[in-house]
């Protein structure tokens, strides 16, 4: 895996920079300690502070072979050609192996069908939280994977989400430009109260105003871990049902009301525009119907 540090990554610790693409910070630290990570060709410590333009190369060990049954992970192919896949991921599916989820992940299910399967990455360009549903793009070759990663870093890959939030923002549109990192006090959370801030920008627009909640369309400029959930909590409007950042069980939800509804990008080979949408899954449609009700029962 090769990653080029963008200007907004300047000053970030090496292990924090690699936490999202590798699935966890602890995994990044293990690979760094094993000497499998170089910065501009030289091994570096986990505390190394990145400079813009530095090339980070991760030489991951091969994943052990998995029984075929472990690849039986539910997902829908929303778009496919000989170069790319767009996957519609249901809630509950983990994207990459990590502590607590060593098997049964989307990347393992895609092994052999997309690039990088021998390293357990399966060409996945960006990730979604386990309980966030919706669209993500997968490359079928290393060349296409590299091109899509670079487009993501240049903010040329459009990622639009639908999020039902508690309350109503004071403006119909807005931008949350607030660095995020591991929360100082609650280590399972990401927040603006952090010792390791990294640039994060989220745009939102009101799609529908409801009695006690608001349906937002959200667009990411950056892709930090838990970015939308942490940013919306920071402005006082957490995602409905969010067990970590909001009120668990709101509207009968068993997860956060967050869905990656649209993905658009310029095809790295053909130059054509690929624009894919995904409708809300059944559990979120049910919660939205409850939110629209005359009394908006949030229990």
Question: Would you give an account of this structure?
Answer:
The chain has 3 domains: 2-58, Structural Genomics Hypothetical 15.5 Kd Protein In mrcA-pckA Intergenic Region, Chain A; 68-154, Pseudouridine synthase; 158-260 and 283-292, Pseudouridine synthase (2-Layer Sandwich), CATH 3.30.2350. The protein has helices spanning 14-22, 25-33, 106-109, 142-153, 227-234, 282-292, and strands at residues 2-4, 37-39, 42-43, 55-58, 76-80, 84-89, 133-139, 158-166, 173-177, 181-182, 190-191, 201-209, 213-220, 258-266, 273-277. By secondary structure, the chain is an alpha+beta fold. Helix content is 18%, strand content 26%.
Highlighted features:
Pseudouridine synthase, 3 domains, alpha+beta, 299 residues, Structural Genomics Hypothetical 15.5 Kd Protein In mrcA-pckA Intergenic Region, Chain A
């Amino acid at each position: 895996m090769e990653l080029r540090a963008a200007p907004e990554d300047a000053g970030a610790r090496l292990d924090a920079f690699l936490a999202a693409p590798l699935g966890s910070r602890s995994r990044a630290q293990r690979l760094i300690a094993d000497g499998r990570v170089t910065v501009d060709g030289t091994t570096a410590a986990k505390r190394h502070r990145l400079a813009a333009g530095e090339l980070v190369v991760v030489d991951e060990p091969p994943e052990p072979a998995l029984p075929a049954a472990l690849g039986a992970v539910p997902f829908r192919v929303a778009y496919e050609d000989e170069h790319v896949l767009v996957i519609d991921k249901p809630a509950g599916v983990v994207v990459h192996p990590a502590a607590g989820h060593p098997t049964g992940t989307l990347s393992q299910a895609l092994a052999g069908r997309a690039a990088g399967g021998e390293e357990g990455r399966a060409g996945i360009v960006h990730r979604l939280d386990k309980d966030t549903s919706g669209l993500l793009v997968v490359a079928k070759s290393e060349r296409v994977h590299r091109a899509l990663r670079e487009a993501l870093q240049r903010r040329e890959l459009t990622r639009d989400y639908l999020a039902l939030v508690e309350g109503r923002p004071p403006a119909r549109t807005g931008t949350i430009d607030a660095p995020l990192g591991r929360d100082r006090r609650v280590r399972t959370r990401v927040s603006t109260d952090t010792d390791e801030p990294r640039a994060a920008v989220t745009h939102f627009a009101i799609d529908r105003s409801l009695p006690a909640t608001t349906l937002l369309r959200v667009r990411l400029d950056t892709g930090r871990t838990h970015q939308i959930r942490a940013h919306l909590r920071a402005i006082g409007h957490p995602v409905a049902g969010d067990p970590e950042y909001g009120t668990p069980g709101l509207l009968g939800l068993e997860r956060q009301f967050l869905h990656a509804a649209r993905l658009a990008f310029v095809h790295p080979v053909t130059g054509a525009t690929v624009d894919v949408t995904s409708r809300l899954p059944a559990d979120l449609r049910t919660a939205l119907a409850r939110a629209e009700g005359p009394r908006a029962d949030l229990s």
